[in-house]
Amino acid sequence: AQARLDEKDPQAVALSYVADSAKADVKKFPKHDNAQLCNGCALWQSKPTDAQGNCALFAGKQVNAKGWCSAWARKV
Ligand code: SF4
Fold it and tell me: What is the best residue among 41, 50, 54 to mutate for testing ligand 1's pocket, by most ligand atoms within 8 Å of CB?
């Protein structure tokens, strides 16, 4: 299995990735909403039910289904 993306990974830090969307920095991201989750993001590439999944921005690493980063975009 692929390694989980670490929040301290430089690329994760650059996008303010958190494994738990509820821990996002709302001062920095006032539009953040706890309902915004990786598994509901347009860049999520795994099944909606997977606990960990691939993200188009983090090749070779898995992000948390309930995670979030500043590139979150609503699935259309
Ligand atoms: Fe999660 Fe979307 Fe950010 Fe990828 S781009 S880490 S799926 S919020």
Answer: 41
